[in-house]
């Protein structure tokens, strides 16, 4: 009968443990070496490509269309407003009454020369001619020499005031008797000439009981002139845009015009900031055209003003934008992203995906896209982009 040797069993277990530890160490080392080797193995380079496309480039800049009155007229008066007059935003045709001060009407007529003096029998001048022309448009007969205030001019003025319900007055603002109609005159503050009619009240033209000594209100011509406002950052040289083609989308169609000279907003008469009832147009101009917005304003020329007038509400709200074309590219020219262009000394070239080096000449470049011309560069040709690190392009493609 054999006896068991305890030491032999202990030795076997120790040997087994050593073998297991050795196997584990070998596995860990092999795995680590494999991972390190895979990390050190260079990844295959990726070649990025882009496609040459036929298109028409255009160097455009956008701006907001603005409308301004062709002219503004300040109405002066002195006395007490005896009848509530036209309110802000109300329109008034030639021959209408702007306001009533001390029960004398302030009349509106069309003329380029402002009312600078009392008009009375025996006077001559362009202002008299304007008065005669306005009375004739209102239906009164004038047979005096043009620009000479004679009997027929006095009679027409007398009849006109009577039709409005007011007494005729002489040069001293005193009522004239029926038999003295030849003395009918127009005191200085009882007539306003506007360059164009109708007009719109930019501020209220008096409330009954109001005392006035100076400006009563401001009138704007309904006739508008237009400008387009560009960011100064987009248009550092305003003169460079003069004559540029302008495209303005309005009511489903595009209206074309040209960009003109800088628009002088300083000649637009201001409106009192404390007037509680500003017109929407005046508010739009005041709020949108301040110098703090850092914009430049250029005239809009050679455009169908009637179509713009029809869109007045949208323009006043600031919802109409236009695009000026600084440079028009070649129609349907081959174009490519500028990053695909390579230079070698004085030469510019592209690398096609079939390995060809094609010399090219560049034309207009807009927002990273350039016109190119070269042999065998048709629409759809694939160009290889330079590797980001300047190395040789590898395999694999990615098309922009």
UniProtKB/TrEMBL annotation:
Xref: SUPFAM superfamilies: PGBD-like
Entry superkingdom: Bacteria
InterPro entries attached to this UniProt entry: PGBD-like_sf (IPR036365), PGBDSf (IPR036366)
Signal peptide: none
Composition skew (Basic and acidic residues), residue ranges: 262-277
Ranges of compositional bias, category Polar residues: 278-290
Organism of derivation: Bifidobacterium pseudolongum
Protein name: Peptidoglycan-binding protein
């Amino acid at each position: 009968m054999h006896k068991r040797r305890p030491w032999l069993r202990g030795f076997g277990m120790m040997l087994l443990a050593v073998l297991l530890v050795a196997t584990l160490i070998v596995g860990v080392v092999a795995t680590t070496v494999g991972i390190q080797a895979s990390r050190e193995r260079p990844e295959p380079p990726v070649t990025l490509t882009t496609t040459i496309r036929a298109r028409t480039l255009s160097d455009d800049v956008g701006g907001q269309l603005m409308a301004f009155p062709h002219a503004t007229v300040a109405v002066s008066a002195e006395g007490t407003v005896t009848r509530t007059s036209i309110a802000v935003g109300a329109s008034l045709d030639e021959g209408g009454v702007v306001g009533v001060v001390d029960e004398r009407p302030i009349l509106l007529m069309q003329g380029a020369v402002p009312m600078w003096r009392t008009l009375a029998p025996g006077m001559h001048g362009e202002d008299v001619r304007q008065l005669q022309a306005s009375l004739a448009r209102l239906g009164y007969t004038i047979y005096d020499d043009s620009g000479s205030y004679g009997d027929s001019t006095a009679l027409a003025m007398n009849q006109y005031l009577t039709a409005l319900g007011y007494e005729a007055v002489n040069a001293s603002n005193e009522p004239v008797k029926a038999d003295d109609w030849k003395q009918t005159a127009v005191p200085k503050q009882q007539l306003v000439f506007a360059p164009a009619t109708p007009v719109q009240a930019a501020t209220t033209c008096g409330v009954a009981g109001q005392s006035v000594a100076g400006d009563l209100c401001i009138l704007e011509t309904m006739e508008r002139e237009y400008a387009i406002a560009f960011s100064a950052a987009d248009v550092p040289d305003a003169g460079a845009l003069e004559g540029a083609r302008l495209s303005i989308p309005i009511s489903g169609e595009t209206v074309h015009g040209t960009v003109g000279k800088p628009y002088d907003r300083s000649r637009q008469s201001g409106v009192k900031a404390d007037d509680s009832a500003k017109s929407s147009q005046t508010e739009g101009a005041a709020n949108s055209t301040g110098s703090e917005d850092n914009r430049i304003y250029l005239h809009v020329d050679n455009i169908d003003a009637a179509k713009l007038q029809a869109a007045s509400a949208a323009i006043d709200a600031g919802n109409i934008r236009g695009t000026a074309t600084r440079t028009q590219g070649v129609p349907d020219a081959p174009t490519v992203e500028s990053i695909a262009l390579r230079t070698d000394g004085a030469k510019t070239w592209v690398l096609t995906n079939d390995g060809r080096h094609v010399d090219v000449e560049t034309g207009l470049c807009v927002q990273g896209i350039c016109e190119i011309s070269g042999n065998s560069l048709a629409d759809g040709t694939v160009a290889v982009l330079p590797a980001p690190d300047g190395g040789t392009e590898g395999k694999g493609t990615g098309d922009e």
